[in-house]
Specification:
- The chain contains 4 helices and no strands.
- 68% of the residues lie in helices and 0% in strands.
- It has helices at residues 5-37, 41-44, 48-77, 94-99.
- The model has no long low-confidence stretch (mean pLDDT 88).
- By secondary structure, the chain is mainly alpha-helical.
- It has a single domain, classed as Up-down Bundle (Four Helix Bundle (Hemerythrin (Met), subunit A)).
Length: 107
């Protein structure tokens, strides 16, 4: 079943909300990295594990941001493709899209 205009508006808002969350998280990682670089060398040792976690999280968030932007692109430029499974061509259930609005597949 195709998405209703109300569902599309809701999913657009969800994508924009998630995009803001990811951009804010990436800004925090960038600030943390900048702050760490400015620390005294002796203070840096204790932060190594935190830095590694930040790098992993930043990479994950960057990939997620790319998926969110791709979903927004589909929603705006190719709306017939948004909400359709790339594998089967079937509509992705609204509940799944609401949870992960950038998803490309049914599962």
């Amino acid at each position: 079943m195709a998405l209703t205009p109300i569902q599309r508006k809701h999913l657009e808002a969800r994508l924009l909300e998630e995009r803001t969350r990811v951009v804010d998280a990436l800004a925090r990682y960038n600030r943390a990295t900048r702050d760490t670089v400015q620390q005294e060398p002796g203070d840096r040792g204790t932060d190594t594990a935190d830095q590694e976690l930040d790098v992993v999280n930043a990479a994950r968030e960057t990939a997620e941001l790319a998926e969110i932007d791709a979903a927004l692109d589909r929603l705006y430029k190719r709306p017939e493709e948004y909400g359709r499974c790339e594998r089967t061509g079937k509509p992705i259930p609204f509940k799944r899209l609401d949870l992960v609005p950038w998803t490309r597949t049914c599962d």
